[in-house]
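Lab channel / #folding
Pinned by the channel admin:
"Please post every new chain as: sequence first, then the structure tokens as a reply. Keep commentary short and put observations after the output so the thread stays searchable."

First post following the new format, from NK:
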Amino acid sequence: MTATLVTLYEILSMLANIFIMLIIVQFVIGLLFAFNVVSPSNQFLMSFYDAINRLMDPILRPVRNLLPQTGAIDFSPIVVIIVLNIVLIVLGNVIDNL
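Reply from TO:
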């Protein structure tokens, strides 16, 4: 049973890492658009950014609703990254202690 839990933990860890990478890519593309490094008229990058936003929005929106409004700065991605890492650490320790 422990091997099954370790396998499930590794799969969950991989999915969390992919999600974290997507959050970072979303952030970087948003910065490129904000500072006019890349034009928003770039159809490929805009459609890619829009797709990532649609994937991330169902998870980030509830966190945004919980956090106070801070103006132009969105802290929800960093909160989600921290919570995901905490969950992975706790699950890893629980599995190690079984």
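NK: The radius of gyration is 17 Å.
TO: also worth noting, Helices lie at 2-34, 43-66, 76-96.
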